Amino acid sequence: MRPIKAILVFACLILLAACATPDSRIADNRTAFDKFPAETQQKIRTGQVEVGFTPEMVLMSLGEPARKFTRKTEMGDTDVWSYHDDSPKFSFGFGVGSGGRGSSVGGGVGVSTGGYDPDEKIRVEFRDGVVTAVDLLRKK
Asked: Which of 73, 93, 109, 117 matches a 20 to 30 Å C-alpha distance to 29?
């Protein structure tokens, strides 16, 4: 196999391995999922979160959060989970270099499974193990 083909195949395998979906998370937690009401199951399947969800339900729906915070207020502590857009990013590059008597030209393709996105997509707030608020990013 040519080196470039091997690199592309390897990059695709990494992307596929990193793609966890609600369906794969449900399959990993089938027993718990089957105990939820039908309406809750449908929301989890479509990646939605509602007030009243437990952390287990949120994990099945959205996966692990990018960050976890604790908010302290006069009403008590709340746990806050922050989710960012972690869809694959693609980039292309071109480079020119020289060394000694010769020169070389090269190019490449980079694939990432996300990385840091400063704009949150969803913020979920828990009090006493239950979702009490869901903040959704508004698209401009």
From this structure: 117
